[in-house]
Amino acid sequence: MTTQPPAPTRDSYAALRYREFNLFVVARFFLTVAIQIQSTVVGWQIYDLTGDALSLGMIGLAEAIPFMSVILYAGHLADLVSRKRIILFSGLAYLLGATVLLLFTLHFSWVISRFGIVPIYVVICLIGVARGFAGPAFSSFVVQLIPRELYANAVTWNSTAWQTAAVMGPALGGLIYGFAAKVVDQSIAWAGIGGTALGRWAGSLAGISWAYLMVVLLIALSMGCVWFINARPTPRSGVKESLKTRLTSGISFVFKNQIILGALSLDLFAVFFGGAVALLPIFADKILHVGPEGLGILRAAPSFGSVFMGLFLAHRPPVRNTGIKLLFFVAAFGVCMILFALSENFYLSLIILALSGAVDNVSVIIRSTILQLMTPDEMRGRVSAVNSIFIGSSNEIGMFESGVAARLLGLIPSVIFGGAITVAVVGITARVAPKLRQLHLQNIV
Q1: Is the pLDDT reported for residue 193 higher than 70?
Q2: How does residue 51 score in pLDDT terms, banded at 50, 70 and 90?
Q3: Can you list the pairs that 183-189 forms with residues at least 24 positions away whose Cβ atoms lie under 8 Å?
Q4: Residue 320: which CATH number?
C-alpha cells in the first residue's frame, strides 16, 4: 500500500496532495463536462424541435422520476458494496445513453422523425437511473480517500473542480452545436466533396453529433480515472437491519438533525423555485437574441462565478458564523434570479448569473461540509441518497416547475416569482431552525 503524506492542518492545498483524491476529482471533472455538454445540447435540440417551454421542463421530469425511484436503494447499496464498482457500472450506463444519442443523429435520425422527442426522453430516463446510483457512491467514496481533518478542504476543491467543469461544459456544448456545422459545411465546399458519400457523412457529424461524440469520449476518460483508484472496504455498523430499516434510516437521521434538515431544505427550495436554467434557451432566443452559442455561455456563467468563489473559500473557509452566512447567501441567490429576469442585456445577464453562481457555491460548500462532518461513516451512502432527494432531484423537478410556471405566468413573471419564494423560504428557515442559524463549523471540525 502506498504511504500517504501527512495531513497538514493549515494548508489550503492539503487534499490535493493525495494522488487518489486527484484522480477522483479529475474523474468527476470529465464526467461533469460531459453531462453539461449533453444537457446544453439536449435542451437546445428539444427547444429547436418544439419551441415549447413545457417540453424543456419535461426534460427534468424525465430524469427525476427514475432518479427518485432508485435513489434510496442506491444509498443502501453504497453502504454495502464497493462504491468504486457502483461508480463504474453507473459510468457504463452514462456511456450507453450518450452513445444512443449519438447514434440517433448519425444513423437513426428517422427515429426522431417518426417518434418525435419521446426517444430523447427515454434516454434521459436511463441517465436518471445512472445518476441515482452514481450520486451516493461518489459522495461516500470521496471521504475514504482523505483523512477526516481534510473533509472541508476536500469539499471545497471537489466543488471548485465541479464548477470549473460546469463552466466548460455548457460553453463547449453551445460552441460545438453552433459552429461545427458551419465549419464542416465550409470544409466540404472547399474540398469539392459536396454530394458525395464522404460529404454526406461529414455533414451528418456536424453540430449536434460532434457534441455527442465529445460526451462519449469524456465519459470514457472519466471512468478510466476511476479505474486507477484503489477500491476501499465499505464501513459496516455491525448491527443487523432489515431492508426496510436500511432504506428509511437515512431519512430518519436527516429529519432528527435540525442543522442538516435546515441546510438541505434551504437548497431544496432555492433550487426548486429559484433556478432558471431550464428556461435559458428561451431567454437566449426571445429575450437576449444570442442563439445556441450564447446559450452555452449563459449556462456556463453561474459556474464561472462559482469557481472564483470556490478558490476564495479554499483559502478563507466559512467556519465562523456559518449558519448566518448560509442564510444570507441563499437569499442573495433568490435576489439574483429576480434581477436576471428583469435584465434584457446579454452582458448584464452574464454578470448576474455569474454572481448567482458565486453566492450559490457558498451554500453548496457549507451544506456538503456539514453532511460530511455530521454523518457516521457507515451511513454515508444512505444520507447522501437523502441529500440527493432534496438537492439532486430538485434540479430536475425544478426544471419541470419552471416550465409549468412559465406556461401559466409567463416567462419573466415566473422567474421573479421563484426568486421571491426563495427569499421567503430563507426567512422561514431562519425562524424555525435556530440551531442552523447559530452554527459555527469550527465547533464540529
Answers
A1: no
A2: confident
A3: none
A4: 1.20.1250.20
Q: Is the pTM of this model over 0.85?
A: no
Residue range 228-261, pLDDT digits in tens: 999 888 776 666 666 667 667 777 888 888 888 8
CA angle 336, 403, 128 (to 5 degrees): 95
* Closest CA relative to residue 402, chosen from 300, 277, 301, 294: 277
Residue 10 lies in a domain: no
Within-domain flag for 63: yes
Domain hosting 322: range is 16-230+242-443
Quick: pLDDT tens for 331-386: 999 899 899 889 889 999 999 999 988 888 888 888 878 877 777 777 777 877 77
How deeply is 440 buried, as exposed, middle or buried, from its count of CB atoms within 10 A (0-12, 13-18, 19+)? middle
Q: How far apart are CA 317 and CA 266, in angstroms?
A: 20
Cβ atoms of 94 and 249 closer than 8 Å = no
Q: Give domain status of residue 235, yes or no.
A: no
Give the per-residue SS3 of the chain: CCCCCCCCCCCCCCHHHCHHHHHHHHHHHHHHHHHHHHHHHHHHHHHHHHCCHHHHHHHHHHHHHHHHHHHHHHHHHHCCCCHHHHHHHHHHHHHHHHHHHHHHHHCCHHHHHHHCCHHHHHHHHHHHHHHHHHHHHHHHHHCCCCCHHHHHHHHHHHHHHHHHHHHHHHHHHHHHHHHHHHHHHHHHHHHCCCCCHHHHHHHHCCCHHHHHHHHHHHHHHHHHHHHCCCCCCCCCCCCCCCHHHHHHHHHHHHHHCHHHHHHHHHHHHHHHHHCCHHHHHHHHHHHCCCHHHHHHHHHHHHHHHHHHHHHHHHHCCCCCCHHHHHHHHHHHHHHHHHHHHHCCCHHHHHHHHHHHHHHHHHHHHHHHHHHHHHCCHHHHHHHHHHHHHHHHHHHHHHHHHHHHHHHHHCHHHHHHHHHHHHHHHHHHHHHHCHHHHCCCHHHCC
Question: Does pLDDT of 282 surpass 70?
Answer: yes
Residue of 218 and 64 predicted with greater confidence: 218
Number of domains making up the chain:
1
- Asked if 179 contacts 55 with a C-beta cutoff of 8 angstroms, the reply is no
Question: In this structure, are residues 157 and 16 in contact, taking their beta carbons and an 8 Å threshold?
Answer: yes
How far is C-alpha 19 from the geometric centre of its chain's CA atoms?
24
How many Å is the maximal CA-CA distance in the chain?
A: 72
Written as nine digits, the cell of 243 is: 431492508
